[in-house]
């Protein structure tokens, strides 16, 4: 099996969620994160974009989304892209 690069978009529960704390919680709960940045959406709401590397296992996308959904302060996590490393 190889590795994949996953780009995730994390939406906080509300504009009042402390994004600095949420980023720290994400880094503590998830391994393989290479980059993380805040992306303004509108109306005071921002998303967190994450680039991470993980193993290319069957159902990896579902496992990753489930892992992020367990972190307090996250409304939803969606995979924007998933590409195999060569």
Automatic annotation (TrEMBL):
Xref: Pfam families: EF1_GNE (PF00736)
SUPFAM superfamilies (alphabetical): eEF-1beta-like
Keywords of this entry: Elongation factor, Protein biosynthesis
Keyword check for Protein biosynthesis: yes
InterPro entries cross-referenced by the UniProt entry: eEF-1beta-like_sf, EF1B_bsu/dsu_GNE, Transl_elong_EF1B/ribsomal_bS6, Transl_elong_EF1B_B_arc
Residue span(s) of domain Translation elongation factor EF1B beta/delta subunit guanine nucleotide exchange: 3-85
Single GO MF descriptor: translation elongation factor activity
Keyword Transmembrane helix in record: no
Family of this protein: Belongs to the EF-1-beta/EF-1-delta family.
Matching PANTHER family: ELONGATION FACTOR 1-BETA
Role summary: Promotes the exchange of GDP for GTP in EF-1-alpha/GDP, thus allowing the regeneration of EF-1-alpha/GTP that could then be used to form the ternary complex EF-1-alpha/GTP/AAtRNA.
Protein name: Elongation factor 1-beta
The gene coding this protein: ef1B
């Amino acid at each position: 099996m190889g590795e994949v690069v996953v780009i995730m978009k994390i939406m906080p529960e509300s504009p009042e969620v402390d994004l600095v704390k949420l980023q720290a919680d994400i880094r503590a709960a998830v391994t393989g994160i290479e980059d993380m940045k805040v992306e303004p959406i509108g109306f005071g709401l921002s998303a967190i974009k994450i680039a991470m590397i993980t193993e290319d296992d069957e159902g990896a996308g579902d496992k990753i989304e489930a892992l992020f959904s367990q972190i307090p302060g996250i409304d939803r996590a969606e995979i924007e892209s998933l590409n195999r490393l060569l």
